[in-house]
Design brief:
Length: 283
């Protein structure tokens, strides 16, 4: 047995987490980042990029369900969905559980998709083979700049704002998302753990506000995203999308035939009830 030490918060906060590793399944340096897939004792296989845990087989459902079903059911009529990042396939899997016509996934690092399909196939669960899915290996910021056809929902499943994920936290990127979404769309973005990464959430909110009328965030708890609650940013022009009633969400949940392990209509509503320290970060 060996240990993997994630030190994302060590330099600034003196905090790290350790995961007991049974074996190293795969490791490579891609053109964009260092990637490892580890077999752990307690969390199944673990995807690590640049030394940071991205997802594990045991707790991936929390993040993937919330980042997908909150915007999808909040919108209610999403037929065209854009996913930026998400190379492990978990968001694509959850989005395709809805009656969408087209789900475009733009991932900059082909190796992440290929290795996750090979070594962690349960994450995508066949989503990459769905005829409604279109997977493009491209720069997300360039894609939204060049794209002209609209989307109903955009989900930004990025790494933290460093390396290849850094450009996905810029105002320029959010401006183009707003252009593609129009008046009825919604974008959800990964914003980190506010206890340790409050500036990440605050900066993202500030850059979204010039382009959307309704900007907020919601919370979830993923065990291996250390530091307590994680935040996902929310931006739309119609405030009603964020304030769906539980009965409306339940009707949509049932109509979609969903069966989930973390997401539920009551959890959806409660996720927008934020602790005061998070509210202060929203500005």
């Amino acid at each position: 047995m060996t240990w993997f030490d994630e030190t994302l918060h060590l330099a600034r906060h003196g905090y790290a987490q350790r995961i007991e590793v049974v074996r190293e399944v795969h490791r490579e340096k891609t053109p964009f980042q260092d990637m490892a897939i580890l077999e752990s004792r307690g969390f199944g296989r673990v995807l690590v990029l640049d030394g940071v845990v991205q997802t594990t087989e045991r707790d991936e459902f929390v993040y993937h369900e919330m980042i997908s079903h909150v915007p999808m059911l909040g919108h209610g009529q999403a037929r065209r969905v854009l996913i930026i990042g998400g190379g492990d396939g978990g968001v694509l899997r959850e989005v395709l559980r809805h009656p969408v016509e087209r789900a475009v996934m733009v991932e900059i690092d082909r190796a992440v998709v290929e290795r996750c399909r090979e070594f962690m196939p349960g994450l995508s669960d066949g989503a990459f083979d769905d005829p409604r899915a279109e997977v493009l290996f491209d720069d997300g910021i360039r894609y939204v700049e060049d794209q002209t056809e609209p989307f109903d929902v955009i989900i930004v499943d990025s790494t933290d704002p460093m390396g290849p994920g850094e450009v996905l936290f810029t105002e320029r990127f959010y401006a183009n998302c707003a252009r593609l979404l129009g008046e009825r769309g919604v974008v959800v973005t990964q914003c980190g753990v506010p206890f340790f990464q409050g500036s990440e959430l605050a900066a993202s909110q500030d850059r979204l506000k010039p382009h959307f009328a309704d900007v907020s965030a919601f919370v979830l708890a993923v065990p291996t995203y250390v530091g307590g609650l994680m935040t996902l940013g929310w931006a739309a022009n119609d405030p009603g999308l964020r304030h769906r009633s539980e009965s409306d969400l339940t009707e949509r949940y049932v109509d979609a035939g969903l069966a989930t392990r973390y997401y539920s209509p009551p959890v959806h509503r409660a996720a927008f009830a934020l602790p005061p320290f998070v509210i202060r970060l929203l500005g």
